[in-house]
Amino acid sequence: MATTHISAGNTSYKSSFNNKFTQFNNNSNKHFPLNLHYPRSLVPPNASLKVDVGTSSRNVDESVEKKKKTKEVIEEEAKYLVGTYARAPIVLEKGKGCKLYDVEGNEYLDLSGGIAVNALGHADDDWLKAVVEQAGLLTHVSNIYHSIPQVELAKRLVASSFADRVFFANSGTEANEAAIKFSRKYQKHTCTEGKVPATEFIAFSNCFHGRTLGALALTSKVQYRTPFEPVMPGVNFLEYGNAPAAVELIRQGKIAAVFVEPIQGEGGIYSATKEFLQSLRNACDETGTLLVFDEVQCGLGRSGFLWAHEAYGIFPDIMTLAKPLAGGLPIGAVLVTEKVASAINYGDHGSTFAGGPLICNAALAVLNKISNPNFLSDVSKKGLYFKELLKQKLGGNPHVKEIRGVGLIIGIDLDVSASPIVEACRNSGLLVLTAGKGNVVRLVPPLIITEQEIEHAANILSQTLHVLDGNN
Protein backbone atom coordinates (compact mmCIF):
# COMPACT_ATOMS: atom_id res chain seq x y z
CA MET A 1 0.00 0.00 0.00
CA ALA A 2 1.38 3.41 -0.90
CA THR A 3 2.17 5.71 1.97
CA THR A 4 2.94 9.41 2.14
CA HIS A 5 6.20 10.38 3.77
CA ILE A 6 5.91 13.82 5.31
CA SER A 7 9.18 15.63 5.95
CA ALA A 8 9.68 17.92 8.92
CA GLY A 9 11.98 20.04 6.81
CA ASN A 10 14.95 19.91 9.18
CA THR A 11 17.93 18.17 7.61
CA SER A 12 20.31 19.27 10.37
CA TYR A 13 18.37 17.12 12.77
CA LYS A 14 19.17 13.98 10.75
CA SER A 15 22.86 14.90 10.93
CA SER A 16 22.50 15.35 14.66
CA PHE A 17 20.83 11.93 14.83
CA ASN A 18 23.69 10.25 12.98
CA ASN A 19 26.25 11.69 15.37
CA LYS A 20 24.22 10.70 18.39
CA PHE A 21 23.60 7.19 17.11
CA THR A 22 27.32 6.60 16.49
CA GLN A 23 28.13 7.78 19.99
CA PHE A 24 25.23 5.73 21.35
CA ASN A 25 26.52 2.49 19.80
CA ASN A 26 30.08 3.17 20.94
CA ASN A 27 28.91 3.32 24.51
CA SER A 28 26.94 0.09 24.75
CA ASN A 29 27.31 0.02 28.52
CA LYS A 30 25.32 3.26 28.75
CA HIS A 31 22.16 2.14 27.02
CA PHE A 32 19.98 3.33 29.87
CA PRO A 33 19.93 7.01 30.87
CA LEU A 34 21.02 7.60 34.43
CA ASN A 35 17.81 9.35 35.45
CA LEU A 36 15.67 6.39 34.38
CA HIS A 37 15.37 3.34 36.62
CA TYR A 38 16.48 0.03 35.16
CA PRO A 39 13.44 -2.26 34.78
CA ARG A 40 13.93 -5.24 37.07
CA SER A 41 14.04 -7.72 34.20
CA LEU A 42 16.91 -5.83 32.56
CA VAL A 43 19.22 -5.37 35.57
CA PRO A 44 22.54 -7.09 34.73
CA PRO A 45 22.76 -10.50 36.42
CA ASN A 46 26.11 -9.69 38.02
CA ALA A 47 24.77 -6.60 39.78
CA SER A 48 25.34 -6.68 43.53
CA LEU A 49 23.32 -4.95 46.22
CA LYS A 50 24.30 -4.26 49.83
CA VAL A 51 21.13 -4.66 51.85
CA ASP A 52 20.68 -4.53 55.61
CA VAL A 53 18.90 -7.67 56.84
CA GLY A 54 16.31 -5.72 58.83
CA THR A 55 15.67 -3.38 55.96
CA SER A 56 15.40 -6.33 53.59
CA SER A 57 12.78 -8.00 55.77
CA ARG A 58 10.73 -4.82 55.99
CA ASN A 59 10.94 -4.30 52.22
CA VAL A 60 9.76 -7.86 51.62
CA ASP A 61 6.71 -7.25 53.83
CA GLU A 62 5.91 -4.01 51.98
CA SER A 63 6.32 -5.73 48.63
CA VAL A 64 3.94 -8.49 49.67
CA GLU A 65 1.33 -5.92 50.74
CA LYS A 66 1.66 -4.01 47.48
CA LYS A 67 1.25 -7.17 45.41
CA LYS A 68 -1.77 -8.03 47.54
CA LYS A 69 -3.24 -4.62 46.69
CA THR A 70 -2.76 -5.30 42.96
CA LYS A 71 -4.47 -8.66 43.30
CA GLU A 72 -7.39 -7.19 45.27
CA VAL A 73 -8.05 -4.43 42.74
CA ILE A 74 -7.96 -6.86 39.81
CA GLU A 75 -10.31 -9.25 41.59
CA GLU A 76 -12.75 -6.43 42.42
CA GLU A 77 -12.66 -5.21 38.83
CA ALA A 78 -13.66 -8.70 37.67
CA LYS A 79 -16.47 -8.75 40.21
CA TYR A 80 -18.01 -5.31 39.70
CA LEU A 81 -17.25 -4.06 36.17
CA VAL A 82 -18.80 -5.23 32.92
CA GLY A 83 -16.15 -7.32 31.18
CA THR A 84 -15.54 -5.27 28.05
CA TYR A 85 -11.77 -4.89 28.46
CA ALA A 86 -9.00 -7.47 28.70
CA ARG A 87 -6.86 -5.26 30.92
CA ALA A 88 -3.12 -5.55 31.50
CA PRO A 89 -2.41 -6.99 34.99
CA ILE A 90 -1.11 -3.77 36.55
CA VAL A 91 -2.87 -1.16 38.68
CA LEU A 92 -1.67 2.33 37.85
CA GLU A 93 -1.71 4.87 40.66
CA LYS A 94 0.00 8.09 39.54
CA GLY A 95 1.91 9.71 36.72
CA LYS A 96 4.12 12.64 35.87
CA GLY A 97 5.33 13.62 32.43
CA CYS A 98 5.92 10.44 30.41
CA LYS A 99 6.19 8.23 33.51
CA LEU A 100 3.51 6.12 35.18
CA TYR A 101 3.72 4.29 38.51
CA ASP A 102 1.70 1.32 39.71
CA VAL A 103 0.57 0.55 43.27
CA GLU A 104 3.67 -1.60 43.76
CA GLY A 105 5.94 1.34 43.01
CA ASN A 106 7.09 0.11 39.59
CA GLU A 107 7.90 2.82 37.06
CA TYR A 108 6.81 2.67 33.41
CA LEU A 109 7.73 4.79 30.42
CA ASP A 110 4.37 5.51 28.82
CA LEU A 111 4.28 5.18 25.04
CA SER A 112 0.56 4.42 25.01
CA GLY A 113 -0.42 7.93 26.09
CA GLY A 114 -3.81 6.75 27.30
CA ILE A 115 -4.40 5.63 23.67
CA ALA A 116 -3.06 8.88 22.17
CA VAL A 117 -4.91 11.04 24.71
CA ASN A 118 -2.23 12.38 27.06
CA ALA A 119 -0.48 14.63 24.56
CA LEU A 120 1.06 16.75 27.33
CA GLY A 121 1.85 13.74 29.47
CA HIS A 122 0.60 13.28 33.01
CA ALA A 123 -0.05 16.14 35.46
CA ASP A 124 1.12 18.94 33.17
CA ASP A 125 1.45 22.07 35.30
CA ASP A 126 -0.47 24.43 32.98
CA TRP A 127 -3.23 21.89 32.42
CA LEU A 128 -3.54 21.29 36.16
CA LYS A 129 -3.74 25.02 36.86
CA ALA A 130 -6.50 25.44 34.27
CA VAL A 131 -8.51 22.56 35.76
CA VAL A 132 -8.14 23.63 39.39
CA GLU A 133 -8.90 27.29 38.75
CA GLN A 134 -11.98 26.53 36.65
CA ALA A 135 -13.22 23.91 39.13
CA GLY A 136 -13.26 26.64 41.75
CA LEU A 137 -15.33 28.90 39.52
CA LEU A 138 -17.80 26.82 37.50
CA THR A 139 -17.80 23.18 36.46
CA HIS A 140 -21.10 22.49 34.69
CA VAL A 141 -24.20 24.43 33.68
CA SER A 142 -25.43 22.44 30.62
CA ASN A 143 -25.94 23.90 27.17
CA ILE A 144 -29.08 25.76 28.16
CA TYR A 145 -26.78 28.63 29.15
CA HIS A 146 -23.72 30.36 27.73
CA SER A 147 -20.28 29.92 29.29
CA ILE A 148 -17.04 31.76 28.52
CA PRO A 149 -14.59 28.81 28.22
CA GLN A 150 -16.82 27.09 25.66
CA VAL A 151 -16.98 30.17 23.45
CA GLU A 152 -13.25 30.82 23.83
CA LEU A 153 -12.36 27.24 22.86
CA ALA A 154 -14.65 27.38 19.83
CA LYS A 155 -13.06 30.67 18.75
CA ARG A 156 -9.56 29.17 19.04
CA LEU A 157 -10.51 26.04 17.08
CA VAL A 158 -12.09 28.08 14.29
CA ALA A 159 -9.13 30.47 14.15
CA SER A 160 -6.67 27.59 13.81
CA SER A 161 -8.55 25.52 11.22
CA PHE A 162 -10.61 25.49 8.01
CA ALA A 163 -13.84 25.56 10.05
CA ASP A 164 -16.42 28.27 10.67
CA ARG A 165 -18.30 26.63 13.55
CA VAL A 166 -17.91 23.97 16.24
CA PHE A 167 -20.17 21.45 17.93
CA PHE A 168 -18.91 19.94 21.19
CA ALA A 169 -19.42 16.32 22.22
CA ASN A 170 -17.94 14.05 24.90
CA SER A 171 -15.85 11.59 22.89
CA GLY A 172 -14.61 10.62 19.44
CA THR A 173 -17.47 8.26 18.75
CA GLU A 174 -19.98 10.98 19.74
CA ALA A 175 -18.22 13.41 17.42
CA ASN A 176 -18.57 10.92 14.56
CA GLU A 177 -22.23 10.29 15.43
CA ALA A 178 -22.82 14.03 15.14
CA ALA A 179 -20.99 14.11 11.82
CA ILE A 180 -23.24 11.33 10.52
CA LYS A 181 -26.36 13.26 11.54
CA PHE A 182 -25.06 16.56 10.19
CA SER A 183 -24.22 14.92 6.85
CA ARG A 184 -27.68 13.48 6.39
CA LYS A 185 -29.37 16.69 7.50
CA TYR A 186 -27.21 18.68 5.09
CA GLN A 187 -28.23 16.46 2.18
CA LYS A 188 -31.91 16.86 3.03
CA HIS A 189 -31.44 20.61 3.46
CA THR A 190 -29.78 21.05 0.06
CA CYS A 191 -31.76 18.50 -1.94
CA THR A 192 -33.91 20.06 -4.62
CA GLU A 193 -37.60 19.17 -4.85
CA GLY A 194 -38.43 15.84 -6.42
CA LYS A 195 -35.02 14.30 -5.70
CA VAL A 196 -34.20 11.72 -3.07
CA PRO A 197 -31.49 13.00 -0.71
CA ALA A 198 -28.25 11.05 -0.47
CA THR A 199 -28.12 8.98 2.71
CA GLU A 200 -25.30 6.47 2.25
CA PHE A 201 -21.68 6.66 3.41
CA ILE A 202 -18.24 5.55 2.32
CA ALA A 203 -15.66 4.26 4.78
CA PHE A 204 -12.42 2.39 4.19
CA SER A 205 -10.56 -0.79 5.08
CA ASN A 206 -8.70 -0.74 8.40
CA CYS A 207 -10.73 2.25 9.56
CA PHE A 208 -12.00 2.89 13.07
CA HIS A 209 -14.62 5.53 13.85
CA GLY A 210 -16.08 4.42 17.18
CA ARG A 211 -18.32 1.93 18.96
CA THR A 212 -21.78 3.51 19.16
CA LEU A 213 -24.14 2.10 16.56
CA GLY A 214 -23.70 4.76 13.90
CA ALA A 215 -19.92 5.09 14.28
CA LEU A 216 -19.68 1.31 14.59
CA ALA A 217 -21.43 0.93 11.25
CA LEU A 218 -18.59 3.00 9.75
CA THR A 219 -15.89 0.86 11.40
CA SER A 220 -14.37 -1.80 9.15
CA LYS A 221 -13.58 -4.60 11.61
CA VAL A 222 -16.32 -7.17 11.21
CA GLN A 223 -15.81 -8.58 14.71
CA TYR A 224 -16.70 -5.20 16.20
CA ARG A 225 -20.00 -5.01 14.28
CA THR A 226 -21.27 -8.59 14.17
CA PRO A 227 -22.44 -8.93 17.82
CA PHE A 228 -24.64 -5.85 17.48
CA GLU A 229 -26.17 -6.23 14.05
CA PRO A 230 -28.24 -4.91 12.49
CA VAL A 231 -26.25 -1.66 12.59
CA MET A 232 -26.96 1.44 10.53
CA PRO A 233 -27.39 0.41 6.86
CA GLY A 234 -26.00 2.17 3.83
CA VAL A 235 -22.25 2.04 4.53
CA ASN A 236 -19.95 1.09 1.65
CA PHE A 237 -16.45 -0.13 2.58
CA LEU A 238 -13.69 0.39 0.04
CA GLU A 239 -9.96 -0.26 0.10
CA TYR A 240 -8.06 2.55 1.82
CA GLY A 241 -6.27 4.42 -0.94
CA ASN A 242 -8.41 3.11 -3.82
CA ALA A 243 -9.31 6.45 -5.38
CA PRO A 244 -10.92 5.16 -8.62
CA ALA A 245 -13.41 2.96 -6.74
CA ALA A 246 -14.30 5.81 -4.38
CA VAL A 247 -14.75 8.35 -7.18
CA GLU A 248 -16.94 5.96 -9.16
CA LEU A 249 -19.22 5.37 -6.17
CA ILE A 250 -19.40 9.04 -5.19
CA ARG A 251 -20.47 10.00 -8.69
CA GLN A 252 -23.54 7.77 -8.44
CA GLY A 253 -25.08 10.48 -6.24
CA LYS A 254 -26.13 8.32 -3.29
CA ILE A 255 -23.30 9.18 -0.88
CA ALA A 256 -24.06 11.70 1.84
CA ALA A 257 -20.48 11.77 3.16
CA VAL A 258 -17.10 10.08 2.90
CA PHE A 259 -15.41 9.33 6.22
CA VAL A 260 -11.63 8.96 6.09
CA GLU A 261 -8.69 9.14 8.51
CA PRO A 262 -5.71 11.00 6.99
CA ILE A 263 -3.57 8.71 9.16
CA GLN A 264 -5.15 5.49 10.42
CA GLY A 265 -4.32 4.72 14.04
CA GLU A 266 -6.28 1.68 15.21
CA GLY A 267 -6.07 0.28 11.68
CA GLY A 268 -2.29 -0.06 11.75
CA ILE A 269 -0.68 3.41 11.25
CA TYR A 270 -1.28 3.88 7.55
CA SER A 271 -0.96 7.33 5.95
CA ALA A 272 -3.11 8.41 3.04
CA THR A 273 -1.49 9.74 -0.13
CA LYS A 274 -2.16 13.27 -1.29
CA GLU A 275 -3.49 11.90 -4.60
CA PHE A 276 -6.06 9.78 -2.77
CA LEU A 277 -7.37 12.61 -0.61
CA GLN A 278 -7.38 15.04 -3.55
CA SER A 279 -9.44 12.60 -5.60
CA LEU A 280 -11.97 12.36 -2.77
CA ARG A 281 -12.09 16.15 -2.45
CA ASN A 282 -12.65 16.66 -6.19
CA ALA A 283 -15.37 14.01 -6.43
CA CYS A 284 -17.18 15.38 -3.38
CA ASP A 285 -17.08 18.90 -4.82
CA GLU A 286 -18.59 17.65 -8.07
CA THR A 287 -21.52 15.88 -6.43
CA GLY A 288 -22.25 17.78 -3.23
CA THR A 289 -21.03 14.88 -1.08
CA LEU A 290 -19.42 15.93 2.19
CA LEU A 291 -15.82 15.00 3.00
CA VAL A 292 -15.27 14.13 6.67
CA PHE A 293 -11.76 13.81 8.12
CA ASP A 294 -11.65 11.77 11.31
CA GLU A 295 -8.67 13.18 13.23
CA VAL A 296 -9.70 11.79 16.59
CA GLN A 297 -6.33 10.03 16.96
CA CYS A 298 -4.04 11.65 14.39
CA GLY A 299 -5.05 15.28 14.96
CA LEU A 300 -3.91 18.04 17.31
CA GLY A 301 -0.17 17.87 16.83
CA ARG A 302 0.51 14.16 16.74
CA SER A 303 1.64 14.21 13.10
CA GLY A 304 3.86 17.25 13.65
CA PHE A 305 1.16 19.43 12.13
CA LEU A 306 -1.67 20.87 14.19
CA TRP A 307 -4.10 18.98 11.95
CA ALA A 308 -2.89 15.95 10.01
CA HIS A 309 -4.60 17.07 6.79
CA GLU A 310 -2.53 20.27 6.71
CA ALA A 311 0.42 18.25 5.42
CA TYR A 312 -1.57 17.48 2.26
CA GLY A 313 -3.05 20.92 1.69
CA ILE A 314 -6.50 19.34 1.35
CA PHE A 315 -9.36 20.42 3.59
CA PRO A 316 -12.61 18.70 4.62
CA ASP A 317 -16.15 19.93 5.12
CA ILE A 318 -16.26 18.32 8.56
CA MET A 319 -13.48 17.26 10.94
CA THR A 320 -13.95 15.22 14.10
CA LEU A 321 -11.63 15.56 17.10
CA ALA A 322 -11.43 14.09 20.57
CA LYS A 323 -8.62 12.16 22.23
CA PRO A 324 -5.92 14.71 23.16
CA LEU A 325 -8.03 17.86 23.14
CA ALA A 326 -8.71 18.18 26.88
CA GLY A 327 -5.56 16.43 28.11
CA GLY A 328 -7.32 13.36 29.53
CA LEU A 329 -10.75 14.81 30.29
CA PRO A 330 -13.62 13.64 28.05
CA ILE A 331 -14.32 15.85 25.05
CA GLY A 332 -15.20 15.53 21.38
CA ALA A 333 -15.55 18.24 18.77
CA VAL A 334 -17.04 18.51 15.30
CA LEU A 335 -15.61 21.30 13.18
CA VAL A 336 -17.74 22.30 10.20
CA THR A 337 -17.91 24.84 7.40
CA GLU A 338 -20.67 27.43 7.33
CA LYS A 339 -22.50 25.55 4.56
CA VAL A 340 -22.83 22.50 6.84
CA ALA A 341 -23.74 24.55 9.91
CA SER A 342 -26.51 26.34 7.97
CA ALA A 343 -28.39 23.03 7.68
CA ILE A 344 -28.56 22.48 11.45
CA ASN A 345 -31.42 23.97 13.47
CA TYR A 346 -32.09 24.29 17.20
CA GLY A 347 -33.04 20.88 18.57
CA ASP A 348 -31.43 18.86 15.76
CA HIS A 349 -28.71 17.61 18.09
CA GLY A 350 -27.48 18.18 21.61
CA SER A 351 -25.63 16.97 24.69
CA THR A 352 -26.05 17.61 28.42
CA PHE A 353 -22.39 17.42 29.40
CA ALA A 354 -20.57 18.43 26.21
CA GLY A 355 -18.55 21.64 26.18
CA GLY A 356 -18.74 22.26 29.91
CA PRO A 357 -16.62 25.09 31.37
CA LEU A 358 -14.19 22.80 33.19
CA ILE A 359 -13.48 20.62 30.16
CA CYS A 360 -13.18 23.57 27.78
CA ASN A 361 -10.79 25.47 30.04
CA ALA A 362 -8.57 22.38 30.21
CA ALA A 363 -8.75 22.09 26.41
CA LEU A 364 -7.70 25.71 26.01
CA ALA A 365 -4.56 24.99 28.02
CA VAL A 366 -3.79 21.98 25.79
CA LEU A 367 -4.51 23.79 22.53
CA ASN A 368 -2.43 26.81 23.51
CA LYS A 369 0.62 24.63 24.09
CA ILE A 370 0.31 22.27 21.15
CA SER A 371 -0.48 24.96 18.57
CA ASN A 372 2.83 26.69 19.27
CA PRO A 373 4.93 26.33 16.07
CA ASN A 374 8.05 25.46 18.08
CA PHE A 375 6.17 22.67 19.87
CA LEU A 376 4.96 21.23 16.56
CA SER A 377 8.44 21.46 15.05
CA ASP A 378 9.83 19.51 18.00
CA VAL A 379 7.21 16.78 17.48
CA SER A 380 8.33 16.42 13.86
CA LYS A 381 11.99 16.26 14.85
CA LYS A 382 11.43 13.72 17.59
CA GLY A 383 9.28 11.62 15.28
CA LEU A 384 12.02 11.49 12.64
CA TYR A 385 14.61 10.63 15.26
CA PHE A 386 12.45 7.89 16.76
CA LYS A 387 11.72 6.25 13.40
CA GLU A 388 15.36 6.30 12.32
CA LEU A 389 16.46 4.90 15.67
CA LEU A 390 13.91 2.11 15.44
CA LYS A 391 15.01 1.28 11.90
CA GLN A 392 18.61 1.08 13.07
CA LYS A 393 17.81 -1.11 16.06
CA LEU A 394 14.91 -3.22 14.81
CA GLY A 395 15.12 -3.13 11.04
CA GLY A 396 17.35 -6.17 10.74
CA ASN A 397 14.99 -8.45 12.63
CA PRO A 398 13.23 -10.92 10.30
CA HIS A 399 9.89 -10.39 12.07
CA VAL A 400 9.91 -6.62 11.42
CA LYS A 401 8.26 -5.93 8.06
CA GLU A 402 8.06 -2.13 8.18
CA ILE A 403 8.39 0.82 10.52
CA ARG A 404 6.01 3.57 9.44
CA GLY A 405 4.24 6.67 10.66
CA VAL A 406 4.45 10.44 10.84
CA GLY A 407 5.48 12.53 13.82
CA LEU A 408 4.76 10.65 17.03
CA ILE A 409 2.26 8.15 15.66
CA ILE A 410 4.47 5.20 14.72
CA GLY A 411 3.75 1.58 13.86
CA ILE A 412 6.10 -1.42 13.87
CA ASP A 413 4.55 -3.91 11.46
CA LEU A 414 5.35 -7.54 12.34
CA ASP A 415 4.79 -10.85 10.60
CA VAL A 416 3.53 -12.34 13.88
CA SER A 417 1.28 -11.24 16.72
CA ALA A 418 2.56 -8.18 18.60
CA SER A 419 1.12 -9.35 21.93
CA PRO A 420 4.29 -11.11 23.18
CA ILE A 421 6.45 -8.03 22.71
CA VAL A 422 3.81 -5.77 24.26
CA GLU A 423 3.85 -7.98 27.36
CA ALA A 424 7.64 -8.20 27.41
CA CYS A 425 7.92 -4.42 27.13
CA ARG A 426 5.48 -3.97 30.00
CA ASN A 427 7.50 -6.35 32.17
CA SER A 428 10.56 -4.27 31.30
CA GLY A 429 8.94 -0.95 32.20
CA LEU A 430 7.61 0.21 28.82
CA LEU A 431 3.94 0.59 27.89
CA VAL A 432 3.04 0.20 24.19
CA LEU A 433 -0.11 -0.74 22.26
CA THR A 434 -1.15 -2.97 19.40
CA ALA A 435 -2.94 -1.97 16.20
CA GLY A 436 -4.02 -3.39 12.86
CA LYS A 437 -4.86 -7.08 13.13
CA GLY A 438 -2.89 -7.35 16.35
CA ASN A 439 0.39 -7.54 14.42
CA VAL A 440 1.43 -3.87 14.74
CA VAL A 441 3.15 -2.32 17.74
CA ARG A 442 1.61 1.15 18.08
CA LEU A 443 3.67 3.95 19.62
CA VAL A 444 1.70 7.08 20.54
CA PRO A 445 3.67 8.65 23.41
CA PRO A 446 3.00 12.02 25.00
CA LEU A 447 4.19 14.69 22.60
CA ILE A 448 6.52 16.01 25.32
CA ILE A 449 8.67 12.84 25.27
CA THR A 450 12.40 13.59 25.39
CA GLU A 451 15.17 12.22 23.17
CA GLN A 452 16.55 10.38 26.19
CA GLU A 453 13.20 8.68 26.76
CA ILE A 454 12.97 7.83 23.06
CA GLU A 455 16.38 6.15 23.25
CA HIS A 456 15.35 4.24 26.36
CA ALA A 457 12.18 3.01 24.66
CA ALA A 458 14.08 1.94 21.53
CA ASN A 459 16.50 -0.05 23.69
CA ILE A 460 13.73 -1.95 25.44
CA LEU A 461 11.97 -2.69 22.15
CA SER A 462 15.24 -3.96 20.71
CA GLN A 463 16.06 -6.13 23.73
CA THR A 464 12.59 -7.71 23.86
CA LEU A 465 12.35 -8.63 20.17
CA HIS A 466 13.60 -12.13 20.94
CA VAL A 467 10.20 -13.06 22.44
CA LEU A 468 8.79 -13.08 18.92
CA ASP A 469 10.79 -16.25 18.35
CA GLY A 470 9.12 -17.85 21.36
CA ASN A 471 12.35 -17.64 23.37
CA ASN A 472 10.77 -16.34 26.54
TrEMBL record:
Keywords from the named record: Amino-acid biosynthesis, Aminotransferase, Arginine biosynthesis, Mitochondrion, Pyridoxal phosphate, Transferase, Transit peptide
Where is it located? Mitochondrion
Taxonomic superkingdom = Eukaryota
Reactions this protein catalyses: N(2)-acetyl-L-ornithine + 2-oxoglutarate = N-acetyl-L-glutamate 5-semialdehyde + L-glutamate
GO MF term set? identical protein binding; N2-acetyl-L-ornithine:2-oxoglutarate 5-aminotransferase activity; pyridoxal phosphate binding
Pfam families recorded for this chain? Aminotran_3
Query: Which pathway does the database say it acts in?
Result: Amino-acid biosynthesis; L-arginine biosynthesis; N(2)-acetyl-L-ornithine from L-glutamate: step 4/4
- The EC code for this enzyme is 2.6.1.11
InterPro entries, alphabetically?
A: AcOrn/SuccOrn_fam, Aminotrans_3, Aminotrans_3_PPA_site, Class-III_PLP-dep_AT, PyrdxlP-dep_Trfase, PyrdxlP-dep_Trfase_major, PyrdxlP-dep_Trfase_small
Q: Which residues form the signal peptide?
A: none
Instruction: Write out the GO biological process terms.
Output: L-arginine biosynthetic process
What PROSITE patterns does the database record attribute to this sequence?
AA_TRANSFER_CLASS_3
What family does this belong to? Belongs to the class-III pyridoxal-phosphate-dependent aminotransferase family.
Q: What is this protein called?
A: acetylornithine transaminase
This protein's species is: Trifolium subterraneum (Subterranean clover)
